[in-house]
Every structure is written in C-alpha cells, then in structure tokens.
C-alpha cells in the first residue's frame, strides 16, 4: 500500500477493509485511470496598493490556515476534477 493512503482519515480507512482503494468517476463511471492532485497551500499576502505578493512564513491572527481537502482527483478518462471524497463515495455507492 502506498504511503499517501494512510494520511487521509476515517472515510478512506473505512472504505479500504481489503487494503485497496476504489475510485469511481461521478461523471463517466471510470474506475481505473486517474490523476492524483496533492494540494499544498501556500499562505500569501498581497499589498493592495502595489500588487506585491509576499509568501508568508508565519500566519498573522487574521489569516485562516488552509483547511480544504489535501487531495483532489482528476478522472483521466473524461477530465473531471473533484475532491477525492467524491470519487470514493461513488465507488462505495457502487458496492451497495
Ligand atoms: Zn470520468
């Protein structure tokens, strides 16, 4: 099993009783070819007067840290991009 599979929390852990992962595209139902998109958020600050962009080492009190999904998935058959959870949920529905 690949390392990234461990890092995603309960829904995936529950889904993978057999130690494997299952995706199904919500749009075209493809099940085997995907592009994994790892999301690494970089906090920035923009000076509204000059347009200067600064990459922040440290967040100020008004800056919410990124709390979106750590991974998105693109279906390599139809090109749809969604959060990974949607592909997992589609696969789960499939098995009911
Ligand atoms: Zn698709």
Detailed description of the structure:
- The protein is α+β, with helices and mostly antiparallel strands and 96 residues long.
- The chain has one domain (3-95).
- Helix content is 19%, strand content 20%.
- It contains 2 helices and 5 strands.
- It has helices spanning 10-15, 84-95, and strands spanning 34-38, 44-46, 53-55, 71-75, 81-83.
- The strands form 2 sheets. A 3-stranded antiparallel beta sheet has the order 1-4-5. Strands 2-3 form a two-stranded antiparallel sheet.
- The longest helix is centred in the last third of the chain and has 12 residues, at 84-95.
- Mean pLDDT is 85; it is low at 1-15.
- Contiguous low-pLDDT stretches (5 residues minimum) are 1-15
Could you report the average pLDDT, rounded to the nearest whole number?
85
Number of domains: 1
Strand content: 15-25%
- Main beta sheet strand tally, sense and closure: 3 strands, antiparallel
Shape: elongated
Query: How far apart are the termini?
Result: 24 Å
Number of helices: 2
Strand order in the largest sheet: 1-4-5
Bound molecules: zinc ion
Secondary-structure element series: HEEEEEH
Structural class estimated from helices and strands? alpha+beta
Radius of gyration: 17 Å
* Helix percent band: 10-25%
The count of DSSP E runs of length 2 or more, i.e. the number of strands, is 5
Provide the descriptors you would attach to this structure in a database record:
3-stranded antiparallel sheet; 96 residues; 5 strands; binds zinc ion; 20% strand; alpha+beta; two-stranded antiparallel sheet
Produce a short descriptive summary:
The chain has 96 residues and is an alpha+beta fold.
